[in-house]
Amino acid sequence: MEKRWTVIEVMRHARHDWLNKIQLIKGHLALNKVERVQEIINGIIGEAQQETRLTNLKAERFAELIMTYNWEPHPIFLEYEVVGDEADLSLYDEPLSEWCRRFFRLLEEQADEQRENHLCLTIEIGHGRAALFFDGRGAWRDGEAVRAWLGRYEPSGPLRLVSFAVGADELTVELELPPCPGISYS
């Protein structure tokens, strides 16, 4: 089941994140590490720009899933980046959100909690299509179960699983959202 965040919960998490960032800046200023403060500020700006790019895709459920994923405890840390052109992916929102939610659940079940597990999601828009690249680093208890799921769980609708590879300590998955009437790519 999908968690629906209340305004209060969202504000609580946002406030907590901002307080952590401000305390980090204050700590480095107290140590007179001005260059490190600049790096932190540039990182904050980069994160805000990525959030803007993600929300500008107009796939609200998908953006919410990605932006709030790390707010709850998971054995995987999710990072994301949106590169390329802008696009209106609102027609893909439901199937994309559902596929990603199931994929994340699978990885959480298979992640070795004794290791650090990272999943980097790159959303690439351009050349008349949108593609999602998942790059996982960590340890999977049963890589064969991950391969089997990817081999049999075809995304719904216009989404297409292009390729995947699963190793002991890494995985890569490419999901494509081909052009569709009503979807505009800028």
State the shape.
globular
Rounded average pLDDT:
90
Kindly, what is the distance between the CA atoms of the first and last residues, rounded to a whole number of angstroms?
Answer: 34 Å
The unreliable regions are none
| Percentage of β-strand residues | 15-25%
The class by helix and strand makeup works out as: alpha+beta
Number of distinct beta strands: 5
Number of helical stretches of at least 4 residues? 5
Q: Biggest β-sheet: count, sense, barrel?
A: 5 strands, mixed
Give the helices and strands as they follow along the chain: HHHEHEEHEE
Q: What gyration radius follows from the Cα positions, in whole Å?
A: 18 Å
In short, what is this structure?
The chain has 186 residues and is α+β, with helices and mostly antiparallel strands. Helices cover 45% and strands 22% of the residues.
Can you walk through the features of this model?
The protein is of the alpha+beta class and 186 residues long. It is built from 5 helices and 5 strands; from the N terminus they run αααβαββαββ. The protein has helices at residues 7-30, 34-55, 60-68, 93-110, 143-152, and strands at residues 77-84, 118-126, 129-137, 160-166, 170-177. The chain has a 5-stranded mixed sheet. Helix 1 packs antiparallel against helix 2 (34-55) and helix 4 (93-110) runs antiparallel to helix 5.
